[in-house]
Design a protein that fits this description.
This protein is α/β, with parallel strands linked by helices. The strands form 3 sheets. A 7-stranded mixed β-sheet has the order 3-9-8-7-6-4-5, sandwiched between helices. A 4-stranded antiparallel β-sheet has the order 10-11-14-13, with helices on one face. A hairpin with a 6-residue loop joins strand 10 and strand 11.
Length: 384
């Protein structure tokens, strides 16, 4: 089979399975609403949970940082890309979350891949929640360690795997808030199991940081635990991009030496680090925004309870409706867009087969009438 044939066959199969992905050009707007020409949509697909991407203090900090440093970092942190802006952000994150060190990465995907690639060796074993993010599972599959997956949010399943024993090192991996279901990991139980077995726990809290816990410190803070490795990302509640790994002094030094993503990738622009520091300062005192978000979540869940599609057990900003069939999920998403509501149909392989869904995300920027309008359209579609 030639290269063109292989590519054509893969594309044809993706179309036939109802799994074709497209990108849409988004025109400027608020996180609550955006437009394209004369058409406007209420935005229920954004992960910018607190509206930080539009916050004036964050925008000003980025502009001032660009004026001071320029728009790029010029190299990796090991060459020219580690500035005072980066160092101060790392220190602030570590102090905020109660860790000795924080290391910045260009993305959450890169951070997860870097940690697992650097730590896991031949003879080790990685135990991952079955629904862990693709970045975690891909890194695990590419590492020389053995990957075993425990049943989703099932501490008993993990306990049985740990009871089997293993001669190498073991790392348990989970998300704090799962990105496709919106449910939360049983972190206290997982922490107890890993402590009892001498295993390390790594938590990716991309969707919990900023919106859960005291001062927005995330899922682990809310659960009263401190995992050995905590990954927080800036593409959600922080309203930007990038990530940080929170860890001990020794692990940080180890990653500086051996994490290839850290060594060989151009670092975040220092102007972005300045903006992230400003976002952190706002997030720490954004209790009113977090309370608004929680009210919106309750409003939506109460209103959606009578819909014919299954509502996931989620108390977070991620509120999926399980449709099941790929084509039907795509159809409903298109109908919603025609009614001025922007939402994405999530299909396999991102989610398990037969669980295609509409993934609604709520933000503090929404208004109660926005949620009323969303529910109105959903009930109208349910009656068709």
């Amino acid at each position: 089979m030639s290269w063109p044939q292989r590519i054509d066959n893969a594309l044809s199969a993706r179309r036939e399975q109802g799994l074709w992905r497209t990108r849409q050009v988004r025109h400027p707007g608020t996180e609550r609403m955006f437009s394209n020409g004369q058409q406007q949509w209420l935005n229920f697909a954004s992960n910018d949970y607190l509206g930080m991407s539009q916050h004036p203090a964050v925008i000003r900090a980025w502009q001032a940082g660009a004026a001071r440093y320029g728009v790029g970092s010029g190299g990796s942190g090991h060459v020219t890309g580690y500035t005072r802006a980066h160092a101060e952000l790392e220190t602030s994150l570590a102090d905020w979350l109660g860790y000795p060190r924080a290391l910045l990465f260009i993305s959450g995907f890169a951070a997860n891949h870097a940690v697992i690639s650097a730590l896991m060796q031949q003879g080790d074993r990685l135990l991952a929640d079955k629904l862990s993010h693709a970045s975690l599972l891909e890194a695990a599959m590419q590492s020389p360690a053995v990957l075993r997956r425990f049943a989703h949010n099932d501490a008993g399943s993990l306990s049985r795997l740990l009871a089997g024993g293993h001669t190498g090192e073991q790392l348990v991996v989970t998300e704090g808030v799962f990105s496709m279901d919106g449910d939360q990991a049983p972190l206290p139980e997982l922490a107890q199991l890993t402590q009892q077995s001498g295993t390390w726990l790594m938590v990716d809290d991309a969707h919990g940081i900023g919106v859960l816990g005291e001062g927005g410190r995330g899922s682990c803070w809310q659960a009263g635990i401190q995992p050995d490795i905590l990954v927080v990302t800036f593409g959600k509640a922080f309203g930007a991009s990038g990530a940080a790994v929170l860890c001990s002094e020794a692990v940080a030094d180890y990653l500086v030496q051996f994490a290839r993503h850290l060594i060989y990738s151009t670092s975040l622009p220092p102007a972005q680090a300045e903006a992230l520091s400003a976002a952190l300062a706002v997030i720490r005192h954004a209790d009113e925004s977090r309370e608004t978000l929680q009210r919106h979540i309750g409003h939506f869940r109460a209103g959606a309870a009578g819909l014919p599609w299954a509502l996931c057990e989620s108390s977070t900003a991620i509120q999926p409706l399980i449709i099941g069939d790929n084509a039907h999920a795509l159809h409903l998403a298109q109908c919603l867009r025609e009614q001025g509501i922007w939402v994405t149909a999530i299909r396999p392989p991102t989610v398990p087969p037969g669980t295609a869904r509409l993934r609604f995300t709520l933000t503090a920027a929404h208004k109660p009438e926005d949620i009323d309008r969303l529910l109105e359209v959903l009930y109208a579609l349910a009656r068709e």
